[in-house]
Amino acid sequence: MCTLQERKVAWSGSTIGNDELEEIINSFENLRLTQGAKVRQFEEVLTKVFDVPYVIAVSNGSIALEIMLQIYGIGQGDEVIVPSNTYFATAAAVSRRGATPVFVDMCPLTQSVNPDLLEAACSRATKAVLYIDYGGFPTDFEKLKIKCEQLGLKLLHDGAQSLGGYYKERPLLSLAETTTTSFHMAKLITTVEGGALFTHNEEVALKARSYRSQGEIEKYIHAYLGTNARMTDIMAAIGIHQLKKLGAIVEKRRQVFNWYKQYLDSNKHIQVLCNQLKEAEQSNFIIALLAERRNDLAVYLKNNGIETRVCYPMPVYEQPVYRKGNLPIRIMPSLETEKLCKNVINPPVYPTLSEEDVQYVCGCINEFYGIYS
């Protein structure tokens, strides 16, 4: 057992406080509960913060992905290249559209889809690449964009882990023509649930606003087969105040990351993954460690009160729903992804995590490998 003073360290922590509660109360007092003025205000602030002309708030990040794919005409018979290493929702959105996800290995420098592998993954049915920024590590966007242009593929972005990151001084959520994000409770800022589409394309924005409201173009006139994906004013009210905290949240998570680097620097059994691109800044949505004897380490940390995650324990194509063989998929060789899934572990990271907490976590990690300070 860890010889340091034992404590409990959760994997994540909330940044919701009295400001958000007051906004919720105000919404109730003014009967602003469903999609209304607060949602519009939230969208307007998001356009300014992320330098994107159109933002459409929706009920969650998964439905944002589906709406984006629907707008770009992705459907049955089409293929979409996705990373082998991503959260299930990325590929699931493609499958729910009736299309085929094509799983491509990650680049070891960015932990996202490898641009050099796209050409070999393409077929006549391939229509788009749906990329991510794993853990908030920026993708080499310019290289990916150039490769997609050469191959005639639409480049779309699942930015659920990208909020707070930058590439050449631009927010990661502003790079692609259209991107989506999530405001789930686990994200850097939250509306508890919720998500949004960010786009530079006015036509995409108009369709997205219609699709989230049953395809309406005016009251009771439905031009598209949409859905109910409306964000509520209560959710938006929380988001408005969360956005005011974003800068401080990003800075504190960067500090937490630097503490991990500092206290694990001498441990040769651990690699702290970090941004490898010049002129890019990671958001530190997660801290990703490559660890020898990962599973034993996870048990050791749990026994010492430290909560961890494994993001992700398997390539997406190994998920049971795909292993059944009922959904069409194509799998490209993904050795880098399989290596990461076998060795990655994600320790706690959140703004209220203290340096003493990080010292305790790192102290337990080091002691597991027989390293004592």
Characterization of the model:
This protein has 373 residues and is of the alpha/beta class. The protein contains 13 helices and 16 strands. The strands form 4 sheets. The chain has an 8-stranded mixed sheet with strand order 1-9-8-5-4-2-3-15, with helices on both faces. The chain has a 3-stranded antiparallel sheet with strand order 7-6-13, with no helix packed on it. Strands 12-14-16 form a 3-stranded antiparallel sheet. A hairpin with a 2-residue loop joins strand 10 (216-218) and strand 11. Helix 1 runs antiparallel to helix 8 (233-244), helix 3 packs across helix 4 and helix 9 packs parallel to helix 13.
Mean pLDDT: 94
The H-level CATH homologous superfamily of the largest domain, spelled out, is Type I PLP-dependent aspartate aminotransferase-like (Major domain)
Rg? 21 Å
Briefly note the CATH topology name of the largest domain. Answer: Aspartate Aminotransferase, domain 2
Largest sheet, spatial ordering of strands:
1-9-8-5-4-2-3-15
The helix-strand sequence is HHEHEHEHEHEEEEEHEEHHEEEHHEHEH
Q: Uncertain spans, ≥5 residues at pLDDT below 50?
A: none
Number of helices: 13
The major pleated sheet works out as: 8 strands, mixed
Q: Which strand-content bin applies to the residues?
A: 15-25%
Q: What is the CATH domain class of the largest domain?
A: Alpha Beta
Helical coverage, percent range: 25-40%
Report the count of strand segments: 16
Q: Characterize the overall form.
A: globular
CATH architecture of the largest domain: 3-Layer(aba) Sandwich
Report how far the terminal alpha carbons are from each other. Answer: 15 Å
Structural class: alpha/beta
Structurally, the number of domains stands at 2
